[in-house]
Fold:
Amino acid sequence: MTREKTDQPIADNRKAGHDFHLLEQFDAGLVLIGSEVKAIREGRVNLRDSYCKLERAEAYLLNVHIGKYSHDGLAGHDPLRPRKLLLHRNELNKLLGKTTEKGLTIVPLRMYFRNGRVKVTIALAKGKKTFDKRETIRRREADRETRAAVKTRRL
Structure:
């Protein structure tokens, strides 16, 4: 019996695509405690303004808000605590080299369940300047207008 890869989306960080040029993506596991997993299953996750930091050959996910579990007693978890990312050694070395050498950053893009385990897609990213953001918006609007013109022409 083979297990299929089923990805159930939990949260997206759409702002990352607007603020950064996304260069390379990696999938990573997360070290969580029980109440965090239960809160994630309830959808109490916010990836906005979160980032990754590399310390002593380990990666940590910072500023991810995982809210309190609804049926949690007094012994809950800290919503903004740093969470360790589980990556292969060669992926960590690659990220460490690129972030120190080129001034790139690591941002989480989405969080999902794969076979009952919480995973995070992180990306090596370079910050966009304001004129890059405006250019992206201009290009998106032009594509939208082109699609609308082609659609009306077909009718």
